[in-house]
């Protein structure tokens, strides 16, 4: 199977803009900058030129790496502009964005005064452009296969994102129907998976690996064929294209089922399970003939698919005849039914790859970075106000502490000290010297003071105990006439006062 011709791939048609640039968009942006931000719109002339240039290049209907980079940057800039300019329906900067679909039998256009419609159309074209690049790859060498594999994975994600995150279905565009977006996402991902199968065959990977990969492709294409048979999709795809895609999906489903059976048959040969090998190869022959029958209905297209099927048919026919003959004349193993054969689990490594629109190498410089959104301006104002309030409180505390420190320094009379004098010549204030002499003349004064303080503390404790006992007794008095007596009230009040003083003195100790 190493030299098998490459099977054809498909890609969605890109959407077409009706106008290169909405005529009133830039004037409305200028007016909003002047009225809302109180800024000079002329400061953003280069930004307006860049915006017009990106829109023009994004709408060129070109599928190449440069165009995709521009479309991604334009998409990112639109997302950033949404936080600064109200551009949705009935908002001050809303303008009409008009795009046409080419997927239906008649080209259908739609226009919305909503920047979200423009964002959805650009995201759709990003996916379609990646798919077109992948489809156009020859896949004849390692580099081309890898490029196709990556682009199909890049192409799948935008359609998922349109369906699940951007809310594209709210716009009356056939391209944005959830069923169609799901179909495109799945078929692009399985086409990436087909690149893996081609690589596995070319690299001569094990029979088990190729058969697992082929089973996943076969099952996915059978599922996609069922999707295309639904009436819901027939309204959104060109009738001629719908028929071609149905035949292609059905033919590929049988084709990869045949590939799976062929490699399982080869594995059975290596394991000397000759009867099972015959059964797998017979099933492979049936499947490839079914694929040939389906694709022959297409008289105009899928020539490469016919070549691939014809090549595989020759290989499988020869292999099946050889293995059957060997089993009939040499091994005589029982040939089981196809449904009784051991199957392999489907495996895939292809997955949708997203991109981060706000990554610097994707979005570039923010065209309107100098304009802060209204919520940011409000936040900055509130921050400045709170910052000033906190600053005032701190300054007031500092000024109070400065005043206290100044008064303390004045009480120390440090201004009487001459710090420029030598230490031997320096003389302390006379008042301090007299106080020191008086204290020195009474060496036992400190000890006497401490003894007296201890006596006072003891008496204070005794007084507190007696007052507590007295208060308890007064509280136990339950005679209303006595409680109303003025003398009783005076005594109770005096006891409370003494208790408070005693408690205060105890707390200071």
Summarize the structure.
The chain is mostly helical and 509 residues long.
Output the strand order for the largest sheet: 1-2-3
- Main beta-sheet annotation: 3 strands, antiparallel
The low-confidence runs, each spanning 5 or more residues with pLDDT under 50, are none
Secondary structure tally: strands: 3
Q: State the end-to-end distance.
A: 100 Å
| Name given to the CATH architecture of the domain at 16-204 and 345-363 | Alpha Horseshoe
Describe this structure in words.
The chain is elongated. Helix content is 66%, strand content 2%. Helix 3 packs antiparallel against helix 4. Among the domains are: 208 residues, alix/aip1 like domains (Serine Threonine Protein Phosphatase 5, Tetratricopeptide repeat, Alpha Horseshoe), CATH 1.25.40; 48 residues; 48 residues. The chain contains 17 helices and three strands. A three-stranded antiparallel β-sheet has the order 1-2-3, covered by helices on one side.
Keywords:
509 residues, 17 helices, 3 strands, BRO1_dom, Serine Threonine Protein Phosphatase 5, Tetratricopeptide repeat, coiled coil, mainly alpha, single chain
Set down the secondary structure blueprint.
Elements: E1 16-17, H1 25-36, H2 45-58, H3 65-81, E2 97-101, E3 108-112, H4 115-136, H5 142-164, H6 178-202, H7 207-229, H8 231-234, H9 239-270, H10 274-295, H11 303-331, H12 360-363, H13 374-411, H14 430-441, H15 445-476, H16 480-483, H17 486-508
Antiparallel strand pairs: 1-2, 2-3
Helix pairs in contact: 2-3, 3-4, 4-5, 5-6, 6-7, 7-9, 9-10, 9-11, 10-11, 15-17
